[in-house]
Amino acid sequence: MLDPLAMGSVSVFALGGLGEVGMNCLAIEQRGEVMLVDCGVTFDHRGLGVDVVHPDFSALEPYRGKIAGLFVTHGHEDHIGAIPYFLERFDVPVWAPPHALALIKSRLAENEVEKPPTLKEANVRGLYRVGSFVVEPIRVTHSIADATALAIKTDAGVVLHTGDFKFDNTPPDGEAFDIDRIDELGEAGIALLLSDSTNIDAAGETGSERGVGDSLHRITAKASGAVVVAMFASNVHRLRMIGEIARHTKRKIVLLGRSVETHASAARETRYLDWPSDIVHPAERAKELPKNQILAIASGTQGEWRGALSRIARGDHPNFEVGPGDTVVLSSRTIPGNDLNVFSVMGHLLRRGVDLKTWINERGVHVSGHAHRQEQKRMLELARPRAFVPVHGTLHHLTRHADLAREVGVQSTCVLENGDVAQVDEAGVKKAGKVQVGRVHVAFGRAIPPAQLRERVILAAEGVVSVTIVARPGGAPDVRVATRGAIDEVAEAQVLSDAKREAARAFRTRRSRSRPAQSGTR
Ligand SMILES: [Zn+2]
Ligand SMILES: [Zn+2]
Questions:
Q1: Considering only CA atoms, which of 469, 495, 464 is closest in space to residue 480?
Q2: N or C terminus: which one in the chain shows less Cβ crowding within 10 Å?
């Protein structure tokens, strides 16, 4: 058991995840040594060919050789996605709960990391020594199986990092939130609480995943044609319930989309998903099944152009099509910024005549995995920490969450953004300097240099004009002007001929001016 022990000072700083939703990566430092909690990616500039964005790890360079390890709370991309890039630069051990570990292994296999990393399984209520830190994972409930909070014993006392959580009283996998353990730690004294701020604006409580299962069951039982459930593939609870629904309604599961397949197979490997082997029907042969025997699961809930849902909506999926009589359920929420794409996909589906059920018109088809305000308050009251730093949110979310902590009586609170260093000691928490942070944009597994990304932004916004001039001694120059994405069709001929004339004139002026200089310098 961890007993709080206040003797020294400890610093925390984030390389990502504070002031944004995504790319979570927090460093805790004591005695010149660092441990990391989570190492995730975010998505940005997708239209410019960027696949993922991960934190710039340069701030960890001064700790090279003194990074004790990385501890992972759960298997969501915004917590594990950057691990292959991190391990390329720093060869340190990684601890993770079994389900997250399976996902990390599949990420590493895709990214072909050179040296085999040291991966260690971390189980709830175990104690793990990470350099001078001792870490205890604690079961929490969330929208993925095997999610944990971490109680980290430091020189300044116990630091409790909630990870992503909500209070789900009836989790579909029966793994109950270990409320007692957090209460015990709170009783003994928590020096610093770091807690999930994502849903600070949502009133009340999130509701149980179990309720989503009931809604999906009701919809599927009534449907006469195929049922397609679009969802985040990482939500193993929901996958598990869809398995139960398929069995009850005598349908086969068809997996549409690569991420659905990856997640289903990782969850089946770790036995978090107990689908019988004959319940999944291969997507390539989906057309063999009568429509009323299909319960499909599709990825691409954010309207991603290449996502399965988008392709089905456009009638562009190689193995599957929908029409009148079929039901499509968006068992998801739209992440701010993706609204237009999602509404466009919804439009395509409606044009095909499907019965469309979304979080807007059908209660209970989705619940969030992140604690609402009321649950965040409950966490603060359970942990009753001496100091509080909100995590996992934009500056707005963090600020509001810190306000809530003060309302419930937390003495010392501090809102940090990426790069801000906070010092934790007996007096509480306060800002104490800054480290350099940044974002690395990756395409095809490689970093895109910042200058190249800036060029892509300019090209995307303004297009490109290229002028080629072939000079002939004594003759008129041959000028060619080519444009891409820069000129509208109607104006094109006139603009191009003007541009050619201007370019030829500029060239002649320049040539006549440069002659004396040339003879002078050579
Ligand atoms: Zn998260
Ligand atoms: Zn999460």
A1: 469
A2: C
